[in-house]
Design a protein that fits this description.
The chain is mainly alpha-helical and 199 residues long. The chain contains 9 helices and 2 strands.
Length: 199
């Protein structure tokens, strides 16, 4: 593996990093978080365990960074000029097949979070808090444009609504989330709750 020494940790190339993250997500889908081991990651990626620990510290950080790396984009990268456009663009970042795979992956990780405090902390710090901050930026722009009243009580619940629609699609309807479902959910539930007129 090509590594360049930089400070405390050695750096790996972006291509190698992407390969490692892909392998981690593959293992995660196959065996789940609890059965995933650093030995298995090392074997699949032809790496040494020492390199993996030096670069990521442990399984929780490696798994969360792999999930974050696999995300196609972030809410703070989107600015269409309207909240409806922003939320629709966010849904459009993933196709239905990827959304179904990620839904299954996130269900498995959500179960593991309850029993693994290190995973819960890494997940919150590296995925949940940045996503909440990005959504808050999207909402601030909508407030600044006059689309949402600054005192709208639903402002604090946008992320809850979005996660709820995504997560409960399988639970209630026995179907994976899709672009069409989430777009309709945004227009019928999320935007009206925020007092935004849909077009």
């Amino acid at each position: 593996m090509t590594e360049v020494a930089t400070g405390r940790r050695s750096r790996i190339t972006p291509e190698r990093e992407a390969e490692l993250y892909g392998a981690v997500l593959g293992l995660l889908r196959e065996v789940g978080y609890d059965a995933l081991t650093m030995d298995a990651v090392a074997a699949r990626t032809r790496s040494s365990k020492a390199t993996l620990y030096r670069q990521w510290g442990g399984k929780a950080e490696l798994v969360v960074k792999a999930i974050r790396h696999g995300k196609p984009g972030h809410a703070d990268d989107i600015d269409t000029g309207s909240l409806q456009g922003d939320l629709h663009a966010l849904v459009a970042l993933e196709d239905d097949c990827t959304m179904e795979q990620n839904s299954a992956l996130m269900r498995g990780v959500a179960m593991a979070i309850h029993h693994n405090p290190d995973l819960r902390q890494a997940f919150r710090e590296q995925l949940i808090e940045p996503e909440i901050a990005a959504f808050q930026q999207v909402l601030r722009r909508a407030v600044d444009r006059g689309e949402i009243r600054p005192d709208c009580p639903a402002l604090d619940f946008l992320v809850h609504m979005m996660v709820g629609g995504f997560a409960t699609r399988t639970l209630l309807d026995d179907q994976p989330p899709t672009r069409a479902f989430l777009t309709a959910y945004i227009d019928a539930v999320v935007l009206p709750a925020l007092g935004v007129r849909t077009v």
